[in-house]
Amino acid sequence: MRIQSLTPMLSALAISAAMLFASPALADTVKMTATLDGAQQSPPVTTKGKGTATLRFNTATKKLRWTVRYSGLSGPATAAHIHGPAAKGQSADPVVPFEGKLKSPIKGSATLTDAQATDLEAGKYYVNIHTAAHADGEIRGQIEKAPATM
To answer: Would you list the DSSP string of 3-41?
Structure first.
C-alpha cells in the first residue's frame, strides 16, 4: 500500500530530473536574425538593396552559423562580413569575414572567441554587405536574438 502511494511522487521526480538534465542542451543554441537595408548604414545609403540574415549560435561550442539572403544591390557583392562591436548607428571593423562565393544566399560558420561571443549576445555585431558603388557597405543589419516562438 505504501509503495503505491510513492509511485506518483517518484514518477514526478523522474520527469523533473529528466527535464533538468535536458534543459542545458536545448539552451545551447540561440537563434538570431538581422534585417539588412541601406538606412542602417552609417551614414545611411540610398539603395533598393535589402536582405535578411538567420544565425544560430551554440553557446557551448561558440560556433556561429549563418545564412544571409539579399537582393536589389547596385552591383555584385564585393565583400561581406560581421562587424563589431558597435551599437546601431555606429561603425566597427570586420570581425568575422564571409569567405567563398558572396552570391545570395551566403552560408558559412565560424568559431568565436569568448570576447566575440559576449559581444554577439549583447547585440553589438552587425552584418554588412559591400559593393563597388558602396565600398563602406551598401546594406547592414544589427544582429539580434530572434523572438521566442511557441
So the answer is: HHHHHHHHHHHHHHHHHHHHHHHHHTEEEEEEEEEGGGS
All structural domains of the chain: 27-145 (2.60.40)
Place of cell 552559423: 65
Average pLDDT, the chain: 88
**Which of 66, 65, 74, 69 has the alpha carbon at shortest distance from 51?**
69
Angle (nearest 5°) at CA 20 between 17 and 25: 135
pLDDT, one tens digit per residue, over 81-133 is 999 999 999 999 999 999 999 999 999 999 999 999 999 999 999 999 999 99
- The single-letter code of the amino acid at 21 is F
Residue 61, C-beta contacts closer than 8 angstroms, at least 6 positions apart:
28, 111
| Reported pTM | 0.81
Cβ atoms 61, 110 nearer than 8 A:
no
Distance CA 31, CA 146 (A): 6
The one-letter code for the residue type at 69 is: R
DSSP 8-state symbol, 61: T
Tell me the residue length of the chain.
150
Residue corresponding to grid cell 564585393: 78
